[in-house]
């Protein structure tokens, strides 16, 4: 059974999807801990599902590196096979990425390498393109530059706003994430040989 730690900053919709998927006996992964960089609403999902949780508040540390060191200490307690960034809105320090690599994956609301960064949905709309997408990647020391594990296109419709487009991307992200985690758990997908 693949053990998974999930890191969030917000409502945790991807986290909830993973927790629900893990209820099925044929799903070969289990979330063992949920961490956050603030008192995120999504921590309520961990509580509901009886999953331990921890918070490492960003503002309580003098640097990104110090925050990353404490986050790494908290994660080390659980020794999870895989760490999923699920809407964590902080860049992890290089030392923590290196320590977790390649067992660290992230979802992104764009068809990478198109529109990396914190505003992928807004940037796609501003560019006037007709489609964007969702991606699941291995995290490296760049910004959304790691090997792509799965991705899917999502059309941009006339009248789309950042909110409406993002709401259509989210279910695709969730589906891709669940599929990737299951394929890692079954050995169908190897993070060490990801493209």
TrEMBL record:
Which GO biological process entries does UniProt record here? Answer: 'de novo' IMP biosynthetic process
**Cross-referenced InterPro entries:** Formyl_transf_N, Formyl_transf_N_sf, GART, GART_AS
Query: What Pfam families does the record tag this protein with?
Result: Formyl_trans_N (PF00551)
Q: Which GO terms describe its cellular component?
A: cytosol
Q: Location of site Raises pKa of active site His? A: 144
Question: Which Enzyme Commission numbers does its entry carry?
Answer: 2.1.2.2
Query: Which family does this protein fall into?
Result: Belongs to the GART family.
Q: What is this protein called?
A: Phosphoribosylglycinamide formyltransferase
Gene name linked to the record? purN
